[in-house]
Design goal:
Elements: H1 10-21, H2 25-38, E1 43-49, E2 55-60, H3 67-72, H4 100-106, E3 109-115, E4 122-128, E5 131-138, E6 143-149, H5 156-160, H6 165-182, E7 187-192, E8 195-200, H7 205-213, E9 221-227, E10 232-238, E11 250-254, E12 257-259, H8 262-271, E13 284-289, E14 295-296, E15 307-308, H9 311-328, H10 368-392, E16 455-458, E17 462-467, E18 470-475, H11 476-494, E19 499-509, H12 515-520, H13 522-528, E20 531-535, E21 539-546, H14 554-567, H15 576-588, H16 598-608, E22 624-628, H17 629-635
Helix pairs in contact: 1-4, 2-6, 8-9, 11-13, 11-15, 11-16, 14-15
């Protein structure tokens, strides 16, 4: 029998490796930016076109490469980062496998320009699908420029699996932010379709966080600093009241490398236990420094997962450090019944000496001067009244003393305007009006409901209604989502939504990458009833909201909407209007645990079955189930 095992050609092996390393345009951005940092660059520029599908270019001012190194960098397993297997356990660089450039060149058109500092001329290499088409000497600035064009041009199936430009750009921004946060001492710039998205100058870590996520972030940060023999922690956590619905502001860096760790994330959540609501996620930007020998980075192609030698110790240290910071800055409550808050000494004053207080005294002040003058006036008035009393009562010893305040009114003034009891008519009480009780508007409009229909609410979650064949059990949250979804969709389609004007404009702060998403949805949001008066770098001003939307819910609705658009829920095949209606309906729908009156229950049942698709929610989940009498009978057999 003939041999059937054979070696794969290099270009096929590179394409297979590219499937692990390059999953989307954001993967290329990560690899190229990390190479720029390893080249000791202090300025990195990222240029994107069409969310990376057309062009991804990274320009740095690092040390560059020689012509031989430039050509060799596109070979598989060629790297300058390690020499022996032992180096894998003391890594201080980003890339070390030597697969990134080779994998990228296998599925795209790559143009590399590089020049070393001491050289006058540089090298340009052009590669198309792992095949070098040109190598020549060029005039180029110091450093390296890598341009990746037409990603997945030779693998159309992979290109078709890419999401919309909005989603792919979101992933690119995520990778850009992760690299920029890990290296605040390096200046980063990003341009998308010719417009500047980020311009981050070299700064400290706090300023880098503020530059990326907006100026309002500064007041949300609580510093965390802890040094132990095992771990050194530095960075910030967000205050509990600013916890978000999504995880966009959660960053762990181990030795300046972004990682994902559900185990360490649980340590943060446990530190915030009892301080944030269910479903909210705390923000954190934490740098962890550990001995490189105690971690294994080489367990995942994207190097975002790390294996620690002693995770339990790290868990305990991180949890206690975050708790200590929240307590130190009076964020977390302290259970101490004997503690007097007036005696608390701030940590900043622990090394300062107490200053001696100074007391100023008015030496000319005489507290008896006024009393002496008052007693003289009283004695004179007393003698005059005594003489008059003696004359009236025939020389008796009875005397009266009068005390009078100059500023106070006489006691007779208390009775001015009062009528005697006999002059008041009893008929006056016939015109007394009683104040009516305060009435609150019901959740739903009043509609006449047939008396034969009976509804019951079970555990403030389900509505049970009787039907001829048995009974109907309705999920009130999903049913309300369906009702609101169809109403919103109708308003946006007809474009006749009703808006209620706010007495004072509502100002909401968002990060610089969330503002463009809201701007792209502005027109559709206005058709639902929102009125926007201002858009700036990190501020949105709203002067009108839909009629059924309370002002306190506006920020929650917009945050949920941004999260849905970023994650492209449910799918790219749906229109923006449909996505918007789904997101708003999900935010406004009544939640589990809300009690409904009989009228509201019956109105929800009638409104649900007036919908075009009453059986499923906007996310295609069942809104109700039916149980026949036969099904109930079987339960008792």
């Amino acid at each position: 029998m003939a041999d059937i095992i054979q070696l794969l050609p290099d270009h096929v092996a590179n394409q297979i490796a590219a499937g692990e390393v390059v999953q989307r345009p954001a993967s290329v951005v990560k690899e190229l930016m990390e190479n720029a940092i390893d080249a000791d660059a202090n300025q990195v520029k990222l240029i994107i076109k069409e969310a990376g599908k057309t062009l991804i270019q990274v320009i740095d001012n690092g040390k560059g490469m020689s012509p031989t190194d430039a050509r060799l960098s596109f070979e598989r397993h060629a790297t300058s980062k390690i020499r022996a297997a032992e180096d894998l356990f003391s890594l201080h660089t980003k890339g070390f496998r030597g697969e990134a450039l080779a994998s990228i060149a296998a599925i795209a058109h790559v143009e590399l320009k590089t020049r070393q500092r001491e050289e006058e001329l540089g090298t340009q290499i052009t590669i198309e699908g792992s095949e070098v088409t040109a190598q020549e000497v060029v005039v180029t600035p110091e450093g390296t420029s890598v341009a990746v064009k037409h990603l997945f041009f030779n693998i159309p199936a992979r290109r078709n699996f890419l999401k919309s430009n909005t989603v792919e750009l979101r992933h690119i921004i995520d990778e850009f932010q992760r690299v920029a946060l890990a290296h605040p001492d390096i200046a980063f710039m990003m341009y998308h379709n010719g417009s500047e998205t980020f311009n981050l100058p070299a700064s400290n870590y706090r300023q880098r966080v503020v530059n990326i996520f907006g100026g309002k972030t500064n007041e949300k940060l609580v510093p965390v600093n802890e040094v132990t023999e095992v771990l050194k922690i530095s960075g910030f956590v967000g205050k509990p009241e600013f916890a978000k619905k999504n995880r966009n502001e959660q960053f762990f860096f181990v030795n300046d490398r972004f990682i994902k760790s559900a185990y360490l994330n649980h340590a943060i959540n446990s530190a915030f236990e009892g301080l944030i609501k269910d479903g909210a996620h705390p923000s954190y930007f934490l740098n962890l420094e550990v001995d490189p020998k105690t971690i294994d980075i080489n367990i995942h192609p994207t190097k975002t997962e790390i294996k620690f030698d002693d995770e339990h110790t790290l868990y305990a240290i991180i949890r206690s450090s975050v708790k200590h910071s929240l307590g130190q800055f009076n964020i977390a409550p302290v259970l101490d019944f004997d503690l007097d808050t007036n005696l608390d000494t701030p940590y900043d004053y622990k090394d300062k000496k107490a200053s001696t207080p100074t007391i100023e005294v008015d030496r000319n002040f005489n507290p008896f001067a006024e009393e002496m003058s008052t007693s003289r006036q009283s004695s004179s008035s007393s003698s005059s009244s005594s003489s008059s009393s003696s004359s009236s009562f025939g020389g008796g010893s009875f005397a009266t003393t009068s005390y009078k305040k100059d500023t106070g009114a006489s006691w007779e003034s208390l009775y001015v305007g009062l009528e005697s009891k006999g002059t008041r008519d009893e008929e006056d009480f016939s015109e007394v009006e009683f104040e009516s009780e305060e009435t609150t508007e019901p959740l739903f409009q009043d509609h006449e409901v047939g008396a034969t229909q009976n509804t019951y609410q079970v555990h403030n979650k389900y509505i049970v209604s009787t039907i001829k064949s048995g009974m109907l059990v309705i999920d009130q949250h999903r049913a309300h989502q369906r009702i609101l979804y169809e109403n919103l969709l109708k308003s946006m389609t007809v474009r006749e939504a009703v808006s209620q004007q706010l007495l004072f404009p509502l100002e909401l702060h968002f990060s610089s990458n969330e503002i463009p998403i809201l701007e792209s949805l502005k027109e559709d949001l206005e058709f639902t009833g929102f009125v926007f008066s201002q858009f700036s770098e990190d501020l949105v001003e709203i002067t009108g909201v839909p009629v059924n939307v309370p002002e306190s819910e506006v920020s929650i609705i917009l945050e949920q909407l941004i999260s849905d658009v970023e994650q492209e829920v449910p799918d790219s095949s749906f229109s923006a209007t449909d996505l918007l209606a789904k997101s708003i309906a999900k935010s406004l729908a009544i939640k589990t645990g809300q009690s409904l009156t009989k009228l509201e229950q019956e109105h929800m049942v009638n409104s649900l079955f007036a919908c075009k698709e009453p059986s499923v929610s906007p996310t295609n989940r069942p809104t109700f189930i039916t149980m026949s009498v036969d099904d109930l009978d079987k339960k008792f057999m």
